[in-house]
Amino acid sequence: IGSCSFGHNFGLTQIISESTELKSLDKSCFGKCKSLESVYLHSARKIGWECFDNCINLKIVILKNTDYLSD
């Protein structure tokens, strides 16, 4: 998922992906999604810098098969 793809999406409350095709979440792709509360990703291999930056209501994150978290 590309950089800033879903940024500033105030209606997004959860992300669920069981796809094995999802390879990476790029920089800030969900940044400032202030209503986002939970994330479940089955196979994101790379999570980019500030991917969930300013997601102030994010409480649950489940990452399976993730190899790399950017700093």
Order of helices and strands: EEEEEE
Spatial order of the strands in the main sheet?
1-3-5
Low-confidence stretches: none
Structural class computed from helices and strand pairing:
mainly beta
The amount of helix comes to under 10%
Q: Could you tell me the radius of gyration in angstroms?
A: 11 Å
**Approximately how much beta-strand content do the residues carry?**
25-35%
Count of strand segments: 6
Mean pLDDT: 89
Major beta sheet summary: 3 strands, parallel
Distance between the termini: 18 Å
- What is the count of helical runs? 0
Shape category: globular
Characterization of the model:
With 71 residues, this protein is mostly beta strands. It contains no helices and 6 strands. It has a 3-stranded parallel sheet, with no helix packed on it. Strands 2-4-6 form a 3-stranded parallel sheet, with no helix packed on it. The mean pLDDT is 89.
